[in-house]
Design a protein that fits this description.
Low-confidence stretches of chain B: none
Radius of gyration of chain A: 13 Å
Helix content of chain A: under 10%
Largest interface: A-B, 23 and 20 residues
Mean pLDDT of chain B: 92
Order of helices and strands of chain A: EEEEEEEEEEE
Number of helices of chain B: 0
Oligomer: heterodimer
Shape of chain A: globular
Largest sheet of chain A: 7 strands, mixed
Chain lengths: ~110, ~120
């Protein structure tokens, strides 16, 4: 079975540019999570969705960050405009709330803002 | 307040040594889950184990074992006869019933280096 798929794996862009990260959850999973990993703050939850609906976005650092889940098999995390301090590894994870499955993570997107 | 504490920042061992990674957690919930994830040098996060707060039985899976003790709020992870492939950062995490089990609260991680 395919795991959580994230794209791109690496992204390097200049500050001020819009960045879009993509995630395809495991088929059948109805919860999706976006995490950010930095040296300073470790792994932190940004936002999560249940059945495509955003439930808690309290971890989103500021209005420059937005996330959408238009359907059960796709989610995006957008940063506009990007800043150097946004440089981090962004992970997407999914789980099945109905069957109480643990979260399984994608390989992450390593984002560098110059 | 930090809810998951991994006091060991880095551990270095020689192959075939046993090593224990410590995890101490803090929660007011009586129902919660505890997890261990592995992050190898390639960067992905790999799920290793989940324990329910009502199940204090120790678990063994091959060279891996986990010791859950509610009395000390600890969920320690032991690797027996370590191998170079065990080199990774290991994260302990907590999810609480009050959060709908949705939010994983991670510790800072322990970097394990196993040398030949």
């Amino acid at each position: 079975d395919a795991g959580v798929i994230q794209s791109p794996r690496h992204e390097v862009t200049e500050m001020g540019q819009e960045v879009t990260l993509r995630c395809k959850p495991i088929s059948g999973h109805n919860s999706l999570f976006w995490y950010r990993q930095t040296m300073m703050r470790g792994l932190e939850l940004l936002i999560y969705f249940n059945n495509n609906v955003p439930i808690d976005d309290s971890g989103m650092p500021e209005d420059r960050f937005s996330a959408k889940m238009p359907n059960a098999s796709f989610s995006t995390l957008k940063i506009q405009p990007s800043e150097p301090r946004d440089s981090a590894v962004y992970f997407c994870a999914s789980s099945s709330r109905d069957t109480n499955q643990p979260q399984h993570f994608g390989d992450g997107t390593r984002l560098s803002i110059l | 307040a930090q809810k998951v504490t991994q006091a060991q920042t880095e551990i270095s061992v020689v192959e075939k040594e046993d090593v224990t990674l410590d995890c101490v957690y803090e929660t007011r919930d009586t129902t919660y889950y505890l997890f261990w994830y592995k992050q190898p040098p390639s960067g992905e996060l790999v799920f290793l184990i989940r324990r329910n707060s009502f199940d204090e039985q120790n678990e063994i899976s091959g060279r891996y074992s986990w010791n859950f003790q509610k009395s000390t709020s600890s969920f320690n992870f032991t690797i027996t006869a370590s191998q170079v492939v065990d080199s990774a950062v290991y994260f302990c995490a907590l999810s609480e019933a009050s959060g709908g089990y949705n939010k994983l609260i991670f510790g800072a991680g322990t970097r394990l280096a196993v040398h030949p």
